[in-house]
Every structure is written in structure tokens, then in C-alpha cells.
Amino acid sequence: MAKKNAPAFGKVSPKNLGIALGAVWGAGLFVTALLDARTGWAATFVGSIGSAYIGYGPNAFGGLMGLMYGFIDGFTGGYLIGWIYNWLCK
After folding, report:
1. DSSP character for 42?
2. Which of 12, 35, 55, 72 is 20 to 30 A off residue 44, Cα-Cα?
3. Could you report the per-residue pLDDT of 23-69, keeping only the tens digit for each?
4. Cα(40)–Cα(17) distance, rounded to whole angstroms?
5. Are 44 and 50 in contact (CB under 8 A)?
6. Where are the domains of the chain?
7. Contact (CB, 8 A) for 35 and 41
8. Rounded distance, CA 36 to CA 28, Å?
């Protein structure tokens, strides 16, 4: 039997959520850039993201730039999501 007034959900570590989302988004951008360079697949996506991330493009350097930008954006977004989630669950 559950305790009365017990929180329904546990807290989330904003730092760990940020690292996880940053790693996934950065790796996704890196792989997509390399696939575009090799096969031409996802050229529209790479071009669209490249308009926001300076240096991102269908080559190895562009993939590394996407990895860096993606990790920073994913980490920031994940951290904020975790922080807001914990704040709302108080």
C-alpha cells in the first residue's frame, strides 16, 4: 500500500539528463552528416541544420561541428527539462 502524500514520481538528475540528450543529439548529427557525405541521404536535413549550426555540413569536419553543437544544445535542453520537471514535482 502506498504512503499518503508520497510523491508519485522521483526526481530526475538534470545533469545526467543533459548528458544523455546531448550525447544522443550530437551523435545523431554526426552520423547523419557522414551518411549524407557518403550516400547523399538526408541532404535536406543536413542543409537545414547547417543553416543554424555554423560549420555543420556533409563531411567529417561538419560532422564534428554537429557533434559539438548538438551536445551543447542537447545538454542545455536536457538540463532545463530536468530542472523544470523537478520544480514542477515539488
Report:
1. T
2. 72
3. 999 999 999 999 999 999 999 999 999 999 999 999 999 999 999 99
4. 32
5. no
6. 15-88
7. yes
8. 12
Residues counted in the chain? 90
Half-sphere exposure of 18 (CA within 13 A, CB side): 14
Give the C-alpha distances (Å, rounded to integers) separating 80 from 13, 41, 50, 58, 71.
Answer: 11, 32, 24, 30, 14
* pLDDT classification of 3: cutoffs 50, 70, 90: low
Handedness of CA 32, 37, 40, 46 (dihedral sign): positive
Q: pTM for this structure?
A: 0.86
To which residue does cell 554537429 refer?
66
Q: Please give the grid coordinates belonging to residue 33.
A: 552528416
Q: How many CB atoms lie within 10 A of CB 11?
A: 11
Q: What are phi and psi of 25, to 5 degrees?
A: -65, -45
